[in-house]
Design a protein that fits this description.
- With about 375 residues, the chain is α/β, with parallel strands linked by helices.
- It has two domains: about 210 residues, Isopropylmalate Dehydrogenase; about 140 residues, 3-Layer(aba) Sandwich (Isopropylmalate Dehydrogenase).
- The chain is globular.
- It starts with a strand and ends in a 24-residue tail after the last helix.
- This is 3-isopropylmalate dehydrogenase.
- Keywords: Oxidoreductase.
Amino acid sequence: MHLKIALLGGDGIGPEVLAEAVKTLRSVADIFGHNFTFKKAVIGAKAINDSRSPLPQETIDICRECDAVLFGAIGSLEYDNDPDAQVRPEQGLLQLRKELGLYANIRPIKVFHHLIPGSPLKRHIIKGTDFVIFRELTNGIYFGEKKLDRDGTHASDLYEYSEGEISQIAHLAFKAAKKRSKKLTLVDKANVLETSRLWRRVVMAIAKSYPEVALECIYIDKATTQMMLDPSRFDVILTDSFFGDILNDQASVLLGSTGILPSASIGSDTAMFEPVHGSYPQAAGKNIANPVASILSVALLLQHFGLEEESNAVVSSVLLSFNKEVVTSDILGSSKYGTDYVGDYIANNIVDTGDILTMNDENIWLGKSTII
């Protein structure tokens, strides 16, 4: 297979972890006989400094020309420390999602037994946690009209959704639930918000088309509590952009490190794959960033294009690195290996073998497809 992939390193540690993901893709191409070509583009703080825009038109054009996008991270202390900045790096990512129509963000949350000691939760609570969050990505309060009065003392943000916007991601989530444990949890605030009441009406109507899937509707406050008390109760979570942002960050804490969680953002014509973690500018250039989330994003990319064996080979190599404790300092208490060494180890241990599919039941996607 030939794929053209846009590379958006972004800010902070983004370019470093993305470089390790590219190593992995090159290894997959060599071993499985594929042809992957890459096109770099800028976004975020570097783009602002170069062109005064967090998302130049050239970057948009490159992403549209490619089959998929691999993204690093976004955010800069320069702009975080300036409350009056009119243009911010994060605006580039929000705009890119809108430009590419990436309406569904998909984040698998899998607790590997190697990493349970690093979780802030007790073993009996965290063990067996394996769910996926479907978050609507291009509408809601982040994209609604924003107002601030002249005195700067009164502000508002418009929170809007339409039936069609809810429907398209709801169908994705139900289809995923059919392939997993046939349970879907809608997270909203229907006791207070009219938008949430619309979400609930639309999702409950769609549920009739998926009778094999059990639908549960709970409020965001209960969802955040249950994620700490009994995370294994969840299988597929469906929610809007705002609540999904909260749940995604909370879910990353379950594993004790944000450096190992991948994500996919899916649209009608293209898809983007990225690690969950932020830009961590304090670590940039120090060779200490964890590349695993970026590398597992490659596994999601491969699965998206139907390359299941290749995806499983990447995951298996990551699991091998955990088993051999070839990891960065944020997990397993190790400080022995750097970003590039871990990336090299994973890339060099990708193998083409039928045993991959049965070698470890912790394979993130084996039997539980998350990408539609």
